[in-house]
Every structure is written in C-alpha cells, then in structure tokens.
UniProtKB/TrEMBL annotation:
Residues 2-218 form the Glutamine amidotransferase type-2 domain. Its main location: cytoplasm. GO terms for biological process: carbohydrate metabolic process; fructose 6-phosphate metabolic process; protein N-linked glycosylation; UDP-N-acetylglucosamine metabolic process. It comes from Terrybacteria sp. (strain RIFCSPHIGHO2_01_FULL_58_15). Catalyzes the first step in hexosamine metabolism, converting fructose-6P into glucosamine-6P using glutamine as a nitrogen source. This is Glutamine--fructose-6-phosphate aminotransferase [isomerizing]. InterPro entries: GATase_2_dom, GFAT, GFAT_N, GlmS/AgaS_SIS, GlmS/FrlB_SIS, Ntn_hydrolases_N, SIS_dom, SIS_dom_sf. Its EC number is 2.6.1.16. The lineage of its organism: Bacteria, Candidatus Terryibacteriota. One of its GO terms (cellular component) is cytosol. The active site is at C2 (nucleophile), K603 (for fru-6p isomerization activity). Keywords: Aminotransferase, Cytoplasm, Glutamine amidotransferase, Repeat, Transferase.
Length: 608
C-alpha cells in the first residue's frame, strides 16, 4: 500500500501535492518523494527516506514554479525503505518519471531484459522496470508509450507518469490498486483516494481496472486496454476531508476489518499457483528448511494468537513438532532446546516489538534458523531474520490489530503447506486446501454484509461487564483473539478459554449476568464444544455463538447466533474471527470508547 498523487493545472503544484501526500500518509510513510515539471530546467526530483514532513523540510527555500507534479508516499514492498528506493523513479535520462502503488510480479524477468538492452537501474524496486519500459517504448507520445509498457506487466498497479519530452501531460493507469481523477476548475488531480483531492475538488471520476487516463490542462481522456475512449460520469464525494482519510469509514478499525478480503488476496498473491505454494522469501534457506525437525513460534499480543494457529498448521499439515512461546518468556527460559534443525518463526505486525526482537536475537545466538512473518517491510525483525514472508496487509493504523491477524494466519498456513511438501501432506490434500483458501476472500465479503446483525447483537451485549470466549482446537486461538479484541476496544472484561477447560474454574462465574461467546463451527470438535455449551446453559449463562450457517444444533442452544459460511475446517478461524472483530468494534462504539486509540495501549510496544 502506497499513496500516489499528481497535479496538473494553473497553480504551483508543489504545495498542493505535498498537502495531498500528508493526507495519504496513512497508506505508508517510510519514504516520500515528488517530481515537478519545470519548463526550462527539466524535471526537479526530491526524495527522502522518512515521512512527508521530511520531504517538505528538504524543499524549504526551493523555487519550484512548476504546475505539473507527481508525488508518492511509500509503504515498502520490494527494496528497503531508503532514498534510492523512494518514488518517483526516473528512466535512464531522468526525462520520464513515475510513481507506483502495487506489485509488479514479473519484474525480475523484465529487469533482466531491460538491463540486457542497456538500461541502467538505480533502485531495488519492482517499480523501476515500468519507467524503463516506458522509456523503451517512447516514440514522442507518452500515453502510447505507457499503453505499450502496460501490456508487458503482470501484477497490480496504480501509476502516474510524466515526461519532459511530452510536457504538460500526466498519464495514469490502474489495475487492482485504487486510483481516481479529481476534476477541479481548470485543474486536475490524480490520487489513490479521495482524501488527497478533497481540498481542491469534490468532483471525481473513479478509474477502473484496465483503464488509462491522459490528462492535460485542457481536459482528460479515459481509454481501456483496446484504446477505446470511455465516457465516464463525474461523481460528487459526499465525505468531509477527515472522513475521506478513512475511506468513508467512521474509524480505522472498521476500515481495516473491511479490508479483510483484499488482505487475504494480497498475502496469497503470486504465492499460490496451480495447487502449489511458492514462497520466494524462503528460497534462500530451503536446504536448511528441508532438515527442520522442530519449530518454535514466538510473538506477543494478537500475533501470539496467530502463532497458536501456526503451531496447529505445522503439526497437522507438515507433521513437524511445533510449540509456541511468548517472546517475553522464550528469552528468559533455559529450556533444553535442540537448536540444530530447529526453526524459529518470529511473528510481528510491526517488526519492532521489543520482546519479539529479543527472542529472535536469542534464537540466533543459539544457532537456530530464524524466519520472520512481518507486515512492516524493512522493520528490525524483517532485517534480522535469516528469511521470511511479508504479510502485505498495508499499514494498520487502528491500535487493535485486525487485518494483520488475518494475513498472519494465511502466511503461516502458506508456510506450513510449503514445508509439508514431501513430508506429511499429499498433493491432493494441498490442492483441496488451497482451493478452499482461494474462496475465503469472497466468504469474508459475504460475512461483512451481515454487519447489521452483528451491530444488533452488540447492542444486546454492551451492558454486560464480563464475558467468556470459548473454543476448541482451531477455534481456541480465535476465542482468545475475540476476547482480546473485546477488552482492548470496549474495556469490558473478557477471558478467552478452552471450552473444555472452562469447567475447571470459570464455570463458577457463570450466571444470567455472565455471557459466553462460543466459537463453534461445524468441525471435528463441534459436538464436544456443544456439550460444553450445555453446561453453560444449565447455569443460565447467556450464549452467543459463531456457528456454521444452518447449524440448528447451535441455534437451539444459543441466545444469538452469527453464521459463517461453510469452509475447510482448518480455514474456519479466518471466517470466525471477522464477526468477533466487528462485535468488539460495535460493543466498543456502543460503550462510547475510542476504538482506534484505546486507553493505555500502543500500536508498537518497543519496551520489554
Ligand atoms: C501491541 C499491539 C497489538 C499487537 C502487539 C504485538 O500490544 O497493540 O495489537 O498484537 O503489540 O505487536 P506486533 O507488532 O509484534 O505484532
């Protein structure tokens, strides 16, 4: 996830794109840059590693009268967050400049061909191939060159391009990454989302996948892949500036929950092919992985709950003994670990959690193979592990982690299937599971449509002061995560427990004022969990359940049910957790809490 913006009009472009970039910073903020077209002096480029504020500081005192500019704020995917990898990227002669959001999947092959043709690269990004391709195809008209270049790309993109050899023009295109055109009076803006254009105009055209737009001061022309011109309607944005940053959602937490389907797609992109899992990030250590006999997963918070599922995946699918340790415990334990042939998976959204980092360093000292499952590219955990997988979930702003959890679970599942090959898992079994995984984003989409029911349930729930979350096997980590979400954002006391263990203590608390949230999909332990729920009902405890659509057994025992679509039982956590995140969100709202910034919590805990 990155933010892109471009301006063409009569006003000085630099302050406009800088202001827009700040509004897009939530999409990524590890580096920023801009290119301003200047009539006589050629394009002016400024880039920094760091935030938009730093870019702005760099430009203080610069005279930049240009009225055409493109700009970018980055969330690194390929290449460390450094100045050389910051966008815009230029061609060999620094005449064409381009900013990109997305991932070019065939960048390695294209890069090799372009280098063979004499192009010189100056960054480690996948993006740079696009600008060299445009250079290669340039015959005097920028839109023709961009159109030709796009035909050779595989992957996702929103791009904005300008060229000193075809001045007074911006060409933009979209494929699976958001892009819109803001239409002002005598001026146009292109941006990743509405928040970046609202200060200038409320009238926009949403650019669709496969479309390209050529913008001059005189007007714009939208074309599709066949170069046919499209007539598009102007849409009036109904949001205020502040609402727009959240994509129209009232809170980042809700926005991030709603991103679940794309998040699952992103973490799988390019990794699931023809019934197989390909993980480029683990290739460098594939020989060592072949000999792994034991796996330790370490993490804190929500990432720890993802790790608990990882343990099940590695054991059930790959047949490799696995265990989970709180990072804070792992580092102080003198457990007799057979460190040879042990792989440590460090799971961290931020890649900066102090305990997780310390555990990772301890594992390295002991000679373990270390693997990171990290969302923030270039973060410390990502840098210090031997190999790893990025989640590609995009920036998570809400302090309570939601979409990152989904992506961590999928990343762990992919890693387990990857390791299972040639071990415990047959080809057909892998294929079936992957086919079911591919259907998960749509299943989450259908779940998100049930939000009204969840909101209604939240209203019934909000007056309680305690709650017990129960689940077994796959649903046990989900119950822990559901309880964590609820306490984080609503300050309602909630405990996650194994449904069977519940009768060894917590059942003493149960009465009509102590509700239970049961995670009970139709899986191999469903009947057992149902028996545990009978024990709750016998003590008049209210029961709210997450169950598979059409499960009469559960609805006859529960006071309220949220249904999830049927799926492969291993994948049920990916569906069960979404309504629990929404439930926590709506209970938090009903109780008047600041769900995006809960009291006492921090997004990244960099102290022990
Ligand atoms: C904090 C955050 C949690 C997060 C945990 C671990 O407590 O509030 O949302 O799960 O840290 O963070 P990490 O970045 O390592 O996943």
């Amino acid at each position: 996830m990155c933010g892109i913006v471009a301006y063409i009009g009569k006003r000085e472009a630099t302050p406009i794109v800088l202001d827009s970039l700040k509004r897009l910073e939530y999409r990524g903020y590890d580096s920023a840059g801009l290119t301003v077209e200047q009539e006589k002096r050629g394009p002016f480029v400024a880039r920094v590693a760091g935030r938009v504020g730093k870019l702005e500081a760099k430009l203080v005192g610069a005279t930049l009268p240009g009225t055409v500019a493109i700009a970018h704020t980055r969330w690194a995917t390929h290449g460390a967050p450094s100045e050389r990898n910051a966008h815009p990227h230029g061609d060999c002669r620094a005449r064409i400049h381009l900013a990109h959001n997305g991932i070019i999947e065939n960048h390695a092959a294209l890069r090799a061909t372009l280098i063979a043709n004499g192009h010189r690269f100056s960054s480690d990004t996948d993006t740079e191939v696009i600008v060299h391709l445009v250079e290669e195809r340039f015959r005097g008209t920028l839109e023709d060159a961009v159109e030709a270049a796009l035909r050779e790309l595989r992957g996702t993109w929103a791009i904005v391009v300008l060229s000193a050899d075809d001045p007074g023009k911006i060409v933009a295109a979209r494929n699976s990454s958001p892009l819109l055109l803001g239409v002002g009076s005598g001026e146009y803006l292109l941006a990743s989302d509405a928040s970046a254009v609202l200060a200038s105009t409320k009238k926009v055209v949403y650019i669709e996948d496969g479309e390209m737009v050529t913008v001059t001061r005189e007007g714009f022309r939208i074309t599709n892949v066949d170069d046919a011109e499209l007539r598009r309607r102007l849409v009036e944005i109904p949001w205020t500036l502040q609402e727009a940053e959240k994509g129209g959602h009232p809170h980042f937490m809700r926005k991030e929950i709603s991103e679940g389907p794309e998040v699952v797609e992103n973490v799988m992109r390019g990794r699931v092919r023809g019934g197989e899992v390909k993980l480029g990030g683990l290739e460098t250590v594939s020989k060592r992985l072949d000999h792994v006999e034991r796996i330790v997963l370490t993490a804190m918070g929500t990432s720890y709950h993802a790790a608990l599922l990882g343990e099940l995946f590695f054991e059930e699918l790959a047949g490799i003994p696995a265990e989970v340790e709180y990072a804070a415990e792992f580092r102080y334990k003198r457990a007799p670990l057979a460190t040879r042939n042990t792989a440590l998976f460090a799971i961290s959204q931020s890649g900066e959690t102090a305990d997780t980092l310390a555990a990772l360093r301890e594992a390295k000292r002991k000679g373990m193979l270390t693997i990171g499952i990290v969302n923030v590219v270039g973060s410390t955990v990502a840098r210090e592990t031997d190999a790893g997988l990025y989640n590609y979930a995009g920036p998570e702003i809400g302090v309570a982690s939601t979409k990152a959890f989904l992506s961590q679970v999928v990343a762990l599942l992919l890693a387990a299937i990857f390791l299972a090959r040639g071990r415990a898992m047959g080809e057909r079994e892998a294929q079936e599971l992957l086919e079911a995984l591919i259907r998960i984003p749509d299943a989450i989409r259908s779940l998100l449509k049930e939000e009204n029911e969840i909101r209604a349930l939240a209203k019934r729930f909000a007056h309680y002061e305690n709650a017990l979350f129960l689940g077994r096997k796959w649903s046990y980590p989900v119950a822990l995560e559901g309880a964590l979400k609820l306490k984080e954002v609503s300050y309602l006391h909630a405990e996650g427990y194994n449904a069977a263990e519940m009768k060894h203590g917590p059942i003493a608390m149960i009465d009509e004022r102590f509700p239970t949230v049961a995670v009970v999909p139709d899986d191999s332990v469903r009947d057992k969990t149902l028996s545990n729920l009978e024990e709750i009902r016998a003590r008049n405890g209210p029961i709210f359940a997450i169950a598979t659509r059409g499960d009469r057994g559960v609805s006859s025992i529960a006071d309220g049910v949220i249904s999830i679509p049927r799926t492969h039982e291993i994948l049920s956590p990916l569906l069960a957790v979404v309504p629990l995140q929404l439930l926590a969100y709506h209970i938090g709202i009903a109780r008047g809490c600041d769900v995006d910034k809960p009291r006492n919590l921090a997004k990244s805990v960099t102290v022990e």
